[in-house]
Amino acid sequence: MEEFIKILTDQIRCAKARDGVARELSSHILDQAQAYEQSGMAHDKAVTKAVREMGDPVEIGVLMDRIHRPQFNWRMLLVTFVLSVMGMLCLIPVYGVERGCRQGLFMLAGFAVIAAVYFVDYSVIGRISAAAYLVMTIVLFIGRYCMATVNGRIPVMSILVYLYVPVFAGILYQLRMGGCRAVGEAIAVSVITFVLCTYFSSTMPASFNILLIMIIMVFAAIQKGVFGKGRKRMTAVAAAAVLLPSAAFLGYLIAGGAGFRVMRIKAFFQRDQYRDTYNYIYTVIDDILRNARFVGRGGSEMDGMQYATFTGAEGLVPLAAMHVYGFIAGILLVVMIIALVLHAVKIVRGQKNQLGFLVSMGCMLVLLLNCLEGILVNVGLFPATTVVIPFLTYGGGAAFVYAVLIGLLLSVHRYEKVYARETYACKPRWKVDLKIEKR
Q: Rounded to two decimals, what is the model's pTM?
């Protein structure tokens, strides 16, 4: 049996897939041999017959090589490239040619990051997640005091904190089979991350987005069986852990906390009453949408640079681009954004191993939430807030973070058919055999 499995696995070029395939074959052969033994056949003859019935090991190995090999998602990379180019063209009328060209350099650097992350095995996240969380926290803490602030906050921090999400996926994987206690620890890490993100970014929207993403990941991990059996009980524990602090925060808002944020929400629902104060931005959005043409510059008097200066929010660049290029350009942007998210969703649905599912889901949720929020804000269907739309927001920080997320998604997809089970788990470096003899 060992010789048969060795010949077969030698035909598989991807070394990472060999151990998993060998375990699957060994289990299948032994199961078949056990069936023969129950009918009265000797063990050695049963194993030999089970191996013989498998067929030619070379032929089977070649077929296995076609199945268990790295794959590349060219469509998602193409969508990413097209969206990046469109984003650069959208930024030129808003910030000028110089910044548009600089964004092109960020785009090229971003694709280098995508390539680097793609070729690094994503399973490393499952092994170093706790250390990565600590290192990232230290780096962000130092950066908070070294980077320049704009209006009391560091803009790049509002996007860099999203890197906590894939690290959190590794933490969830480390907590696997831990039951209700692990669920409680995961929720605790989510709350701690929310506090850290609020401190580093000085912006609540990004912190709330990350908290929401992590909570969804916890519930998804429960349903996936990451924490073990007893899903109903663990779901109840997670729901209680989430609802209690949420109710407390809602009471804080109702009592008058974060007054300017409450006023922004009121202005969104009562636009006529706050037309000249908090609601002025919605008036501008309505004006640009109403005067936009299908192709070409719209009838609004506000040009791109004035629009960017007025809003002070880089996430509203698509609306300015719609004003400059027309509705058709806006529709194409939305179509490409939807295509990017759908490719990410497809990768998540294709995952059978737990770590790949958690990592890809975290990256997908960041893309989905920011894209959905960004589109709704740009058309005035969501309260105006700081949004960072993938590849449509100016800056190297945004390009870097989304490049990491896209690279991780591509890396997960690359090994989708390589890991038959949890074959990426860290193997022990030492083996201790303890033998007790009775004298």
A: 0.80
